[in-house]
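hi!! sorry for the late reply, been swamped w classes. u asked for the two structures so here they r. pasted raw, havent cleaned anything up. first the sequence of the first protein and right below it the tokens
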Amino acid sequence: MGRQTEEATPYRAQVHAVVEQAAAMRDQTGWTPRVFDLGGGFAHGRDPEGRRSEAHAPPIEDYAEALITALLAELEQHRFPPPVLEFEPGGS
């Protein structure tokens, strides 16, 4: 997901895809990841092309809530132990 995404909700789909892939790798190889890096690049008000302003970018807390809520649900569904969580907030 990149900074062009001005809504926090699509990050839930990203988390779902990441955990689904991790579960498939675990089921095929027996390897269980201990770290999940959920990326970053959240939208922010400083756009060099002037397409966006602070008013359009959700607060960083909205991104964090969407990511963590989705991650906890996905991890429980796929029976993963609690991981180390990493993400880079980008310009936010």
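now the second protein. again sequence first, tokens right under
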Amino acid sequence: MDRCNDLCTQETIGRCLLCDALTERDRFIRLWFKGGVLMDGVRALKSRGLFAFFLSRRTYLLAGFAAVLLLGLIYQCFWVIPNQQVTSVKIAAEKRELTQKDVYELRNSIRQTFVQALGLLGSAALFFGLYYTAKTLRISQETLRTNQEALRVTQEGHIT
């Protein structure tokens, strides 16, 4: 490897901060100013067509779509719904609007309810995951047992 300058420590200690910085700079320039990922995608669009481009990147598209949906759901649950609920509530006894402190407490209690529901959904998903993992493990063990039995029968046949 070329030395970055006369004070380069690449050969002596195996690492040079200036060499690392120059390498990072070159990678950044290639990625953002000379095309990089974006231009690779444009070239793929030109050579294979639009459908092939999206098909080759379907995992990224699905992950991005799922992330946008998740962010929308979080925004809805933690901002829109609590605000709608708070604006529709009035104190029944006094027939007046809530105080600022009451509004904040009500919003937080609504958000706590959503967090508790998410915790329940997460624990249910965990239990289903554990169930299917145990089921898969049991099937794998049965398959291994069957393969070992077949191997033993084959070995006995060779011995005979």
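hope this helps!! also noticed smth abt the second:
The radius of gyration is 30 Å.
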